[in-house]
Each structure stands twice: as C-alpha cells, then as structure tokens.
Fold each of these.
Amino acid sequence: MSLKFYTNPMSRGQIARWALHEAGVEYDEKIVAFDNEMKSADFLAVNPMGKVPAIVHNGKTVTECAAICAYLADTFPDAGLAPTADERADYYRWLFFVAGPIEQAVTDRSFGVVIAEEQQRMAGYGNYNMAMDVLDQMLQTNDYVCGKRFTMADVYVGAQVGWGLAFKSFPERGSFKAYAERVQSRSAYIEAKAIDEKLIPQG
C-alpha cells in the first residue's frame, strides 16, 4: 500500500482515520505506543514532534489533523469531499478557525489560562466565549461547514465538536449537539470509530 498511517487509538489519530474512511483510502496502519515509541528515532524521522497522527503517501509526510483532512480531500477527489469553487471560502475559513482559535481557546481553558481583557486583542481567539459564540452562530444557520453538503472540513470540525461535548470542553449548546449527531451518524465515522475502540486495549 502506498499510504502509511501512523496513529494511536487514544489520540487525534481518530480524526485522521475517520478522514481516511470518508475518502475511501486503503492504508497500512502502524500503531505508535505512547510510552517510548513516539520518541524513538524511527518515529521521529517521520514526525520530529513525536506526535500522531501522521501519514506518508508517495514519499511525502503529512502531519496535523487539519492538514491531513485537506490533503486527503484534494488527493482523492473521487470521494467528492473537497470544496467546490463556491464552497472554498467557507471550507477553509471554518477548517482553520477550529484548528486555530477554537483549539487554542479550549487548550488554554483546560490549562487554566485566563486571558485578561486588555490581552484579548493579542490572542487569536480573543476569549473562549467569543470563539464558541462565533462557531455556534455559524452552526445555527448551516447543517455543515459549507451549508447543506458534507465536506472533509466537517470531519475535522465535527471531531472537535464531538470530542468537546464528550469531554466537557465545549459548552452544551443546541447547535453543537445537533451538528455532532449529524456527522457521527455517517457510516465512515461509525466504521472508523469501531476500529479505534477495538484497538484501545492495545494502545
């Protein structure tokens, strides 16, 4: 197989696996253990950050979940998950809004970092409530990131919303719950999730 997938079932690798299944891509899987394998010379040669997921396709390495999602949509267009010309602005806007401001806001809040009002202009996400309000407003009026059609951006955004609700790092808002239910009902999500749940005892 030409695509190698490095992951751990208890990691963001779940996002990449879902993306692979949505794209219909065959892959050769390598489970990377947390204890010492992620910092091994072999894996650091793949990703010097020592983190999963990563994919290697045709000799090129892609890391970072949002990048993996976008790469798979572009590289395997038959799945129809890349944006059309009309969808491109929304697709990239919300993909990177969630990968940037939302993830930073959630991480800071989880670590107890409080952004003072006078510092908010320097923080890309402003403050946690502002970032969540912006995403909430979009999902109140759209079924998916690009409107009525599911795209690969919904794999990344949907995974973050779903995990955020499950781990209480997102507020329980109606738009978030409804969106998570929509994306998690997809067969590719269910299939990929079942694989990771089966692998967790080995992770």
Amino acid sequence: MGHREDMLDVIKRAYAARGAGDVKGLVATFHPEGSFNLIGDNSALHLTGSVQGQQPLLEAFGQFIKHFAFEKREILSEVVEGNHAVVRCRLVVRYHPSGKVFSTEVLDLFRFQDGKIIELIEYADTALVKAIIS
C-alpha cells in the first residue's frame, strides 16, 4: 500500500469505528500483527504502553472505549509519505465513570502493511488524562 487516499480511508474508518465505540471495527483496520503504543510514563498513567496482535488490541481498545467516548474528532492536519501517515486531531472526550468532558489534541503516527495499520503510535496529553481520571 502506498496510495495516500487508500491509507487515509483506512485511518478514517478506524477513527469512525473508535467514535462509534465499535472495537471490532477498529481492530479490523489493523494488520493481524498490528500494534498500538500510547506514549507516556506508565508509572504515572497505567493506560500508556504498547500492545500487539488482534486479541491484545481488542482488549486494550475495549478498555479505552469503555472508559473514554470520543464525542467529536476534528482532523487538523495529515501528512502521508510512503507507507507512513501522521494525523493531528482535536478531540472532545467524555470520561464515562465521572461524566467529565474535556478537549485535547493527539498526534497519531501510522505505518501500513498490506493495506492495514501495522503500527499506531499515539502521542496524547497523558498529564491531562491523569488529572481527569484522578
């Protein structure tokens, strides 16, 4: 895969599934050996770290969806080169346990293989997330 429109279509399908709370649809956009890594200090926020493979992705994304609803996503910028894409988004997020709503930005770094996401590295304001869930 290397076509810009094809990669952006997969990303938008992944984002739509995440926004709809569809964990299976989200994981379906990933390669069977795909990985997700939320960058941050795991000792400060247990949600950070990396998972790889379909079942671990289902479990991890299932937990994220259970606790955090993405109520709105605005794509601010996107860059595609080769089999890589970078997308910066502004999100409106609801933390289900408390009902708190907050706005934040994330930066997603994607790598593709065989038309699927083989790697997603996400940079988020983990300090803000920690404050919200505390």
Amino acid sequence: MQRDIEVKLLRALVAVVDEGGFARAAQALHVTQPTISQQIQRLESVVETPLFHRTRRPLRLSPVGREVVAHARRVLLLNTEVLSTVSALRTQERLNMGCSVHFADGLSTMLAQLSLDRPQLCCAVTTGMSEELAGKIAAEELDAAILLGAETSRGEMLGRVRLSWFGQAPALPGGEFPVALVGGGSALSRRVVETLAEHRVRWRAAPWCADPLAVRAAVGAGLAYTVLPAGAHHGDPSLRPVPAGLLGPEPEPLPVHLAFSPSAGDSLVDAARAAARAMLKDLPLSLP
C-alpha cells in the first residue's frame, strides 16, 4: 500500500526543529501544542520509526529524523514554488490576438514592443485570412484581431492601407498577364479582380492559392503578379514593384479594422490597440 506524507506534517517537523521545541513550534504555526504533538506522532507512524530521542534534553533528532528533515525542507520549498507559479499564471493577463496574414511581417515588431511595454501580458497570436479571423472573433475564440477589408460588429477602423502591384513576369500567349491571387474570397483578391475588370486588363489566374506565402513565392520567382501593401518589397527583396501603368492604376486602398470580441474588457482592448500600433507602424496607412 502506498503511503503519502501530508505537507502539514512535514511543516510541523521543520517548525519543531527550527523553533527548538513543540511549544514554540505551536506558536509559530498558530496551533496548539497538542496539535503539534499529534502531527509528529502521525508522521512517525507513516515513516514507522521515531524522529526524536525523547529521553534526552534538549530535544534531539534521531538519524531517521535528520534524514526526514532534510527532505522535508525540499518538499516545503517545492510546495511554495508550485503555489507561487500557479498564482502567477492565474493572475497573468492573456491576450489572444489574431492577425491577417498580410500583416504578418510586423509580428516580430509587435511582440518585441509588447514585451517592453507590457511584460506581464501573455500574448498568443493566430494568423489567417481576415474573414476566418472575423469568425473566431464572433465565436470569442480570439480577444482581438487586425483585419484587412473585413469588419465585425465591435471594433474600430485604424485607417486604409495603400496597395501596389508587384511582380516581373512575361505576358502569356494572347497578351494576358499572369496574376496570383489568394483564394477563399479575401477582400484583397476581390479588390484586385475589380481593379483589373474596371480597367479592362487581360489576365489569367496563375495560380489560385489558399496560402499567401505561396502567392509571394510565385511572384518572387517571376511567375506572376499580385497586389500587396505598398512598400512590401522593402522587407522582401524578391518582390519587385511593377512599372507604373503596366497593369493599370494601383488598386484603391483597403480599410484595416481592429476587431474585438463581445466579451473583451478594457484592459485587453488597450493591449490590442498597443499591439496594432506596433504591428502597423511601418505600413503605408492613411488615417480613417
């Protein structure tokens, strides 16, 4: 049968040793002396051997008692560490932040800034398409999210991001331009298609893809054109701005929204605003 030692029994033993007797241990632990005596007796019944030489004065530990005291100190220290850690985790503020994949370049800046400004804040980041993140906001799976071209019932507009054409690819047979778009009906892809149609630019999707990183790779490899936030080539040398007028004018800017879940409190809203400012500070963002 497994035998377990209660922490309070070890605490009583250490108190008797440190205070030099049962009476003083009782005072230190704010209990009665009979209680201390009973706890020591219970501890001795567990280890099945005396812990003190009771026939001697002053009170002295037996060899087993000295061994138990050494282990007891480590157990009490670990007990304190566990409770302190759990208490810190329980009281630590946590922000579940969503970020459109189109702004993922600013994640390192955002996390670095938050660690300086709000070291007590634990920030978990989810990237994805804005429409998907908006659904997570409504389901309260996220506290806040930075969205491109998508709006939710609770949030605020941060501005409009200027867009530019990028790529360097030969025209396809028939004079069509290969354009790489993110699938899934994103606001950015819709804006690109609308712009090409409005200016009667002949184009072909090459390829439709659910992953914006794959779109960037196709553009960087010289296989297609696409639209990204203006200045994206500063952080990615493989992206080359398209000569003015080749695909018509630049698409109109898209709104950027900071969305909040219905239950997000003021503290998390403020933290999300700070995160958004850090993430978007290098983007060509006009005021609302």
